[in-house]
Amino acid sequence: MSDAAAVDRPAPVGPATDTAPAADANAFPEGVIVRAATSAAASGAEHVEEAVAYDAILLASFGGPEGQDDVIPFLRNVTRGRGIPDERLEEVAHHYRAFGGISPINEQNRELKAALEAELARRGIDLPVLWGNRNWAPYLPEALREANERGFTKLIAIGTSAYSSYSSCRQYREDYAKALTETGLEGTLQIDKVRQFFDHPGFVAPFIDGVSAVFDEIEAALPGIDLGTEVEVLFSTHSIPSTDADRSGPPERGFGPGGAYQAQHLAVAEVVMEAVGVGRSSLPQWQLVFQSRSGPPTQPWLDPDINDAIGELPARGIRAVVIVPLGFVSDHMEVKWDLDKEATDTANENALYSVRVPTPGVHQQYVSGLIDLVLERVNGVPTADRPSLTPLGPWYDVCRSGCCENVRLGFKPALAGLAP
């Protein structure tokens, strides 16, 4: 998800132009229905089982300010085209200013890039890792220009978001398309993406480890506490507008209210709880909660808000709360502020013992899992051999038509999926 707490859902932006010309499907060569894809993915198969000799990995993220002077320009980037005055942006800026104007996300991406490179080297795989952000330097167009300068033509992209929704998948795909147009490299570079990895073992394992360790911590800190009746697990993710959530995932899957976005989180939470329950006589109750809402009060967003959920726990006899940042891959601003500050303060106000589980970050299984996702496409791994821990996966290599629509912005050209 984005690293912009309390700003309404932005349109795709970059360092220069805001829009790209609509792709003309009739201009594609015969048999090609996926824009700027490799030949293996060009026909739009749900899962690409043909090996592809990629030249490099494109690590794509949201970006964040790296000093006090960067904060407002960064927020202008995030909200470009929406006419939000600097006074409103300053209301959001205090989250960043409390951390010296520095979002943790860029440093975390540097660490992830280095960890990916180390894992590739350990396995003897010669695939450079390029890094580009959507809203702050280094920008995606810079990464594409670097790829071109180094003679690369086939890129496999990893977005730093595991789930399906407009802001966590389609918006990345739109920004890939816009960056190709801006750089004039369409026709020169081909960009595919790994599947959404919400239920890949490498993403889920760190949460299983973290929740299990926290249960042990709580039992040590509060002797005699009953995990089954006095502890609650809150799986937290970014709230999004209900209209976006309902349209997340392929329309033909018919997920209903909350769409694939909510269904994926619920499925992963069930996997985590089942895994941590092995060898335990009882387990806490759990629920999926949401955070970081930023839209106007009149616009429905997914709920309940984590702070509201925490406020209801004491009346049920809950003494401790476990906060699991299930929707996030690293400890960026929405984890450090919205969970470690606001949600933790709410827990303290309600006299609850609270512990926040770590995000995957550079956990070895997570890093290794990301490389495994790349190798699925490099080696053309059969769908039946691809790991997924829920019945919903393995998710699609090529996003389906109409997937993750944003009704306010409409469909814009996007890579790694069928039009629109």
TrEMBL record:
It is found in: Cytoplasm. Residues 1-22 are annotated as: Disordered. GO terms for biological process: heme biosynthetic process. GO terms for molecular function: ferrochelatase activity; metal ion binding. Pfam families: Ferrochelatase. Coiled coil: none annotated. Fe(2+) binds at residues 238, 334. Pathway: Porphyrin-containing compound metabolism; protoheme biosynthesis. Residues 10-22 have a biased composition (Low complexity). Its EC number is 4.99.1.9. It is an enzyme of class 4 (lyase). The keyword S-adenosyl-L-methionine does not apply. It catalyses: Fe-coproporphyrin III + 2 H(+) = coproporphyrin III + Fe(2+). Fe-coproporphyrin III binds at residues 103, 172. InterPro entries: Ferrochelatase, Ferrochelatase_C, Ferrochelatase_N. GO terms for cellular component: cytoplasm. Keywords: Cytoplasm, Heme biosynthesis, Iron, Lyase, Metal-binding, Porphyrin biosynthesis. Belongs to the ferrochelatase family. Involved in coproporphyrin-dependent heme b biosynthesis. Catalyzes the insertion of ferrous iron into coproporphyrin III to form Fe-coproporphyrin III. This is Coproporphyrin III ferrochelatase. It comes from Subtercola boreus.
